[in-house]
Amino acid sequence: METSGYRRMLCYRMQALNACRQKHPKRYLLYDVNPPEGFNLRRDVYIRMASLVKTLRRHGDWVLVLPPWGRLYHWQSPDIHQTRIPWGEFFSLTSLQGNVPVIEYEEFIAESGGPFIEQVLVLQNYAEGWTDGKWEEKVDERPCVERLMYSKDKQGYYRGWFWGYEETRCVNVTCLSAQGHASILAPLLQNNITSTSVMLDRAETVLHDLYAGKDYWNTRRSMVFAKHLRLLGDEFRAMYLNSTDEQDQTVYNEDWTLIKNKLSSARGGPYLGVHLRRKDFIWGHREDVPSLKGAVKKIRSLMKKNNLDRVFVATDADDEELAELKRMLPEMTRFEPTWEDLELLKDGGVAIIDQWICAHARYFIGTSVSTFSFRIHEEREILGFDPKTTYNRFCGDSENVCEQPTHWKIVY
Ligand SMILES: C[C@@H]1O[C@H](OP(=O)(O)OP(=O)(O)OC[C@H]2O[C@@H](n3cnc4c(=O)[nH]c(N)nc43)[C@H](O)[C@@H]2O)[C@@H](O)[C@H](O)[C@@H]1O
């Protein structure tokens, strides 16, 4: 093409792009989750929000702002700074961006020109519940049912918990009753709300657009753990569990879009992987959680059955229970970071390393309804394990019907 023709074409393209930008200015979707919810439920809510942003992007230039990690109820290691943690410390940002446009919160502040969120929408359930017991998808602006966690300052801005960013303020806060899947919010965000930045608080109120469908799995696959955490997990596997990707048929590709493992293609390292959730799971005296004695009995029988002489245990057990577990199962291996490691990795990083090691075991058993165990199931599904080696859980000592976890088959 001659130079002037090329210039003209470029010019048309730039004009079209600018016109498009003016017509569809960049908009930011922020979100947060009910404070007591843990790390792995929050990972699930991310999938719902990513799906909503995909829907919104059909008609506008929406970007998802990643809520910094911190102040989580379960992250109790003392003397460690655990707020304002960017997603990049736990996940690969380029992998997330390969699925949907995302930015860190500090990038949002820099791009949008200040620490202001224009509109917060607090999601809530309908006070009247389901009408006539009938499930109906709906969304309406309604008065707030619960006391707001935001209060006005002298300048008339709202202050609240914005992930530890004290200087962040919000211009307007209203409540929205919502019942249904995440994308039912799209028309309202697109047409009724003109703010450039909108935050959905209590985002767990809305459901997955399609749980375990192709889009769910794409987003889940894009949630690749940060490389330094994977490497630490791999080093630990090699050093203490005689486990390497080549031997175990779990070779990984940095680009998640290229990973398409066949079911049952992974062999896994020669050890049993265990996730034994304790703390608040036993305080409630739940029927589906075993005693330590019951758990050890099951572990021993699985090691024998699968011909494995090593066991890796991931657990949040307190010191007293840990000492008892060590006494009953002296051969167990655990990832035990030094204080310096912990300061660097934080509780979230250690949890990820535990999950990564469990995900590579030849056989895995987890804890009933723990989202921590569910995320391990998914990681193993991505790696291509036989479902029989993955979807297993401990039974309570006197649980009569011990239903095993559902196999959610990966969809590409
Ligand atoms: C009862 C509910 O339980 C839900 O927990 P559940 O689904 O197990 O799973 P999570 O939502 O991840 O919350 C449990 C948290 O406890 C720690 N934790 C639990 N097990 C382990 C482990 O094996 N290793 C390490 N390193 N850390 C562990 C970790 O910080 C994890 O994020 C909560 O999300 C809800 O808020 C609620 O409390």
UniProtKB/TrEMBL annotation:
Molecular function per GO: peptide-O-fucosyltransferase activity
Major place of residence: endoplasmic reticulum
One CC-aspect GO term: endoplasmic reticulum membrane
Pathway: Protein modification; protein glycosylation
Enzyme Commission number(s): 2.4.1.221
Protein name from the UniProt record: GDP-fucose protein O-fucosyltransferase 2
Lineage: Eukaryota, Metazoa, Chordata, Craniata, Vertebrata
Pfam families registered for this protein in UniProt: O-FucT (PF10250)
